[in-house]
Amino acid sequence: MQPRRDPEVDGDTILWRRLTSPDWIVPKSDGLRRVSSAAFKGRPEEIHLSVHIADFTDLDTIFSTLPWCESVAEIRAEYFQSLGRQVHHTPDPETDDNSHASITLAGNYGQRKKDAKVVAMKARLIEKREVPPT
Amino acid sequence: MATAVRAMRGGLPSQNQWSSVMPLSDIPYWYTRAVQTVMRLADQAENWDGYGSLNIQIPARTRANELLAILSINGASAPHIAPLSGGGLQFEWEFAGRELELEILPTGDIDFLTTSPNGEMLQGEVPDPKKQIPLLFGWLITGEFTTAASYLENRYATSP
Questions:
Q1: Number of neighbours of residue B145 by Cβ within 10 angstroms
Q2: Which of A115, A123, B25, B111 could form a disulfide with A35 if both were Cys (CB 3.0 to 4.6 A apart)?
Q3: Cβ atoms within 10 A of the Cβ of B154, count?
Q4: CA-to-CA distance for B146 and B152, rounded, in angstroms?
């Protein structure tokens, strides 16, 4: 039996990384907020980073399903691909999540830290907006 | 009135319980809040990130508090403190287009990453925080690695 080969996504694919810690958002001196590279490092012993393909989900779904988050980092697949990393569409049958994708991080943790910084500098922060009750 | 700040003692055992004492009035405004942040993050349960992370490991927590003491003694500004999946902590600063990250690994070891306005990055280990933190922070504030460069370049690789 052939091993499953998930397709690599196009460079212009919009990806959302759940910011599951509010401390991954950095307040700036100008009052704006940015995404910390901490959001893109993953666990040292784990080489894959979970993201969602925006075309296959929406923010309401992201903000109402596990793992909980109230903000996401929006990036383009090419940010990682230009660093030599692969981004594969990896639907999750357990959660019936067709939007799941997986970034293969650098095996060398030092390189991974640089990659995370480069991507964090390009990431766009999207925060959940609470609609006030009428 | 004074308060003692327990600072780094490197890898060697010290005869003194306290390696430095700082007047309370000299402690930066952010210090207490930063210590509380470390405590809050370290108290998070496993899987705090929803992706199966370990909680912040004790050596990382201990080293973070030591690092805060060193930073406060050296006139550093408030760090942003973030938890890392895997059980570490990250301190970061941004000034005049320059960025400095100090990563405290779950083992308590410290790495640094500097990013210049032109995107050039320099990374390496911080085996002796007492000596290296002032150099790194000096670079963040002034952009000059004049004194730091000779020390660092002999040990660490530069990358685009």
A1: 18
A2: A123
A3: 7
A4: 10
Chain A contact for B48, CB < 8 A?
Answer: yes
What does pTM read for this prediction? 0.86
pLDDT tens per residue across span B90-122 = 999 999 999 999 999 999 999 999 999 999 999
DSSP 3-state of B19? coil
Chain A residue at shortest CA distance from B81: A23
Q: Where do the H-state alpha helices sit in A48-108?
A: 59-64, 77-81
Residue A68: its chain B contacts at CB < 8 A?
Answer: 50
Residue A107 lies in a domain: yes
In the beta sheet, which residues pair with residue A51?
A101
Please give the ipTM for the structure prediction: 0.91
The string of pLDDT tens digits covering residues A5-23 is: 678 999 999 999 999 999 9
Q: Is residue A2 part of a domain?
A: no
Distance CA B130, CA B153 (A): 18
- Number of domains making up chain A: 1
Cα R_g (chain B), whole angstroms = 16
**Segments making up each domain of chain B, as ranges:** 2-159
B103 at A interface, C-beta within 8 A: yes
